[in-house]
Amino acid sequence: MRLTKYGHSCVRVERDGAVLVIDPGEFSGREPLDGADAVLVTHEHPDHIDVDAVAEACEKNPALRVYAHAGTASTLDRLGAAVTTVESGDSFQAAGFGVSAWGGLHAVNHPDIPRVPNLGYLVEGEIYHPGDSFDPPFGAEVGTLFVPISAPWLKLAEAIEFTRAVRPRRAYALHDGILNERGLKIVNTHLARLSGTDYAWLQPGTTIN
User: Fold this and answer.
1) Conformation bin of residue 48: beta by default, left when phi > 0, alpha when psi is -120 to 50
2) Domain containing 49 — which CATH number?
3) What are the beta bridge partners of residue 91?
4) What residues make up the domain containing 8?
């Protein structure tokens, strides 16, 4: 599988011509959706789902399928029959990739802010994207973890402990679009030193195998 990390929260997965995109949000641009066969949406926030961009991709490819929690799907009404609802604990096929859904709720921003549904997605039992949560895929031997590193709802210690709990073979930064260069350097230094795995930050558009 080929993985491309785009801006902020978006990851593109490719294999044998099939393209699966996770969280193509407003910080990611439209490039990740070029040739997409399926989209996984962790939750409704616009930094994770650019509805206009996905609608445009659906017009170009009527076979494109979008998977989201039922509580998120209400924000995707304009996509119509392209949307399939999934719940935590579900396993399904998306663009030929085996996917399982984990978690269920967005991490707490503040007690006064209602929590929205959030699903983490484990792709082919190998790649884990948690969305805006630190819900681990219990019992899974994760090869590649995308770990959120900066948000109103997290602190760095939580990102470190989450990575340690998942115990992936490697980890890459996720949810990095609100950090400036100085903050990114601090966060990357601590995660590389303390996460217990091979951690790296990827320049947007970087592809790995």
Assistant:
1) alpha
2) 3.60.15.10
3) 100
4) 2-208
